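User: Structure please.
Assistant: Input sequence and predicted structure:
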Amino acid sequence: MEAEPVVVVDRVIKIYESGAERVTALKEVSLSVMKGEVVTIMGPSGSGKTTLLNLIAGVDRPSAGRVIVNGKDLTRMDEEQLRLYRLLEVGYVFQEHNLIPTLTALENVLLPMTLAGKRDKERALQLIRSVGLEGKEHRYPEQLSGGEQQRLAVAVALANDPQLIIADEPTGELDLVTGEKVVRLLLDQAKLGGKTVIITTHDPRVARMTDRVVLLEDGRIRGSYRPSRIPVSGTGGEEEIAAERIIVEHLKRLLEDAKKRKEEIAKKIAEGKITLDEAVSMYLKVKSLEEAILEELTRLGAGSEVLGR
């Protein structure tokens, strides 16, 4: 018998209205994710990635269509049912961390456990160790770096052992080594714990580690492909090969953005707006991402095309 998907997004539309302004963030998006699958959603800023995550996590409601998780239609749930769903069934790693500033790292991890009636200090400490924050259990979020706060947010999301984990740019503020550790932690949750993971990212290094990459542009899914099939040219079907070409175009745009960011860094240091140390740190981060994009373009068969410009 074929397995049922854990997450089903069925022809979802999301419209935001503010005064006379009306913005359609998602336009009849449909997506299915299986148990134990790790899916990356890529796309430019403003493409609807965070909106889609918020709907799957029960943080927001669609304007039309359905979102079904583990057979439960979120669009039919009342606010209390959604609150319990968010607490018990989904772990959300927010881009802004969403940590409680007046609670220590340990207390932040214990909070969702306490709300669920299953406070477990040993598990909380183990989660803190697993994200590399051992020895910092009693520090407050403001006493942690941005990267440490992001890792703490992962521990908080895993506190109640949810079957669905959602992460919005989980490596955005992390260096390459730490970012890879965080992603591998999420992957282990899927492969060893049978959990389903959905991640948004701009970083092809993150996407490459996952089972499937979905490209979202202008509120619509343009296609998807499986990174594991990239090295074998032409192994995908027509639809998958077309999706890879769409990803290539997206990566080319990211490469152009990286070049512009390097130019902006040079301009800022010339104008005295940033220090040399700040410039070097910013430049190395952009350069690292640029190299990752070029490597992924090469894997997709478009490296020489880009380098030959």
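The radius of gyration is 20 Å.
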